[in-house]
Specification:
Elements (H helix, E strand, L loop, with lengths): L7 E5 L2 H7 L4 E5 L2 H9 L8 E9 L9 E9 L2 E4 L2 H14 L3 E8 L7 H11 L3 E3 L2 H10 L4 E9 L8 H4 L9 H10 L7 H22 L6
Parallel strand pairs: 1-2, 1-3, 3-8, 4-6, 6-7
Antiparallel strand pairs: 3-7, 4-5, 4-8
Length: about 220
Amino acid sequence: MKADGRPVLVVGGLAAEARIAAGPGVICLAAPPSALAGKLEDLAAEPCGVISFGLCGGLASSLDAGWLAVGTKALHDGRSWTCDPRLASRFIEAAANAGVNAIEGPFACAASPLLAARDKAALHERTGAVAVDTESHVAAAYAAKHDLPFAILRAVSDPAEANLPPLAVRAIGPTGRLDWRAISGELAFRPGQLLLLPGTALDTLRAMRALRRVRRLLGPRFGL
């Protein structure tokens, strides 16, 4: 797989994900799903491939927080995009070398995070997907439009049985960074969410740690 010196484009929803992905030969784009397609269209660079990278929700009940999920395809609204099998194999190998549990399978893509465990269970039953995220279908469509290899490398931050606080949706601003005003307003409106935050934060830290360990082994351009 020859990259010809062009950078790989890494797409996610959070600035924290982009910081982990950053490195030689990498362009990172972090934005919420509502803004992501427009930002991709405005991209001036010509990448050699596209990787959807960051956190995801677990749909398969066997996945604990911190497991790596490597996509075989992205599913959204009746459409399907196939992931590059060579990149997927490289990611699985890197996870094994890093001592990180990993699973390979299809990703379901949603317009917003699934907060309720029952909704994740229903999506798993309907699609057979192992994980869910909100950016992979946008990244996949961009890759297909430009005839670029596409891959998904994400870590589970909320297992299938976990219920997320509504704050998980409203905390991220249009630049992929935390919106502290929105966070304060949400907590004032629904203070009971505070009870869920410690567990959610711990699961997110486990996922971020797994991403860092695997990313370090992938090197420039994620090996593309």
